[in-house]
């Protein structure tokens, strides 16, 4: 079994509900089991500010799926939620599921980059990740706890708890 860390984000169609539905759906992914889920966080959008604020969380998933099979499963969940992939990288979205880490693997392919690019500069990834895995070491050797202490919070706030079914 590998441990994958998944970032969840939404800023459309009742974002807290979308994140909870995504957690529930990830809990049904074959050959996988959620082992931890962070609180739900309220964050400002990256990129254009003329869009709603985001809800974000991170979960730990024990899985036997390969990274690409997991990516396919997550993209199917996004599609079921109504996500339409557009060229606008920083625009609003109903659901965004990203593989942040997959064990200590480093992957740089056309479809998947792990560790997720920019994760060390994103408070809405690092702080929820530190909540559930503070002693986690990145492939670079950096500790999540150290990175999370050094990052600006940019107004990030805990919104509430998510449920594991």
UniProtKB/TrEMBL annotation:
SUPFAM superfamilies linked: 6-hydroxymethyl-7,8-dihydropterin pyrophosphokinase, HPPK
InterPro entries reported for this sequence: Hppk (IPR000550), Hppk_sf (IPR035907)
Source domain of life: Bacteria
Keywords, in A-Z order: ATP-binding, Folate biosynthesis, Kinase, Nucleotide-binding, Transferase
Domain (7,8-dihydro-6-hydroxymethylpterin-pyrophosphokinase) ranges: 89-100
Recorded GO MF terms: 2-amino-4-hydroxy-6-hydroxymethyldihydropteridine diphosphokinase activity; ATP binding; kinase activity
Example GO BP: tetrahydrofolate biosynthetic process
Pathway note: Cofactor biosynthesis; tetrahydrofolate biosynthesis; 2-amino-4-hydroxy-6-hydroxymethyl-7,8-dihydropteridine diphosphate from 7,8-dihydroneopterin triphosphate: step 4/4
Enzyme class, UniProt record, top EC level: transferase
EC number of this enzyme: 2.7.6.3
Any one Pfam family match given in the protein's UniProt record, by short name: HPPK
Function in brief: Catalyzes the transfer of pyrophosphate from adenosine triphosphate (ATP) to 6-hydroxymethyl-7,8-dihydropterin, an enzymatic step in folate biosynthesis pathway.
Similarity remark: Belongs to the HPPK family.
Name listed for the protein in its UniProt record: 2-amino-4-hydroxy-6-hydroxymethyldihydropteridine pyrophosphokinase
Record organism: Thalassotalea euphylliae
Highest classification ranks of the organism: Bacteria, Pseudomonadati, Pseudomonadota, Gammaproteobacteria, Alteromonadales
């Amino acid at each position: 079994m590998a441990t994958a860390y998944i970032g969840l984000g939404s800023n459309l169609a009742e974002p807290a509900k979308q994140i909870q539905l995504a957690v529930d759906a990830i809990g049904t992914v074959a050959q996988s089991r959620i082992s931890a889920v962070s609180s739900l966080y309220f964050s400002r959008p990256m990129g254009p500010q003329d869009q709603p604020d985001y809800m974000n969380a991170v979960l730990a998933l024990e899985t036997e799926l390969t990274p690409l099979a997991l990516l396919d499963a997550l993209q199917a969940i996004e599609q079921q939620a109504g996500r339409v992939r557009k060229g606008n990288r920083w625009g609003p979205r109903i659901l965004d599921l990203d593989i942040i880490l997959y064990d200590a693997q480093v992957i740089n392919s056309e479809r998947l980059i792990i560790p997720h690019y920019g994760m060390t500069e994103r408070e809405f990834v690092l702080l929820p990740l530190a909540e559930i895995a503070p002693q986690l070491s990145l492939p670079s050797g950096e500790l999540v706890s150290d990175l999370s202490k050094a990052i600006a919070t940019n107004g990030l706030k805990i919104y509430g708890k998510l449920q594991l079914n």
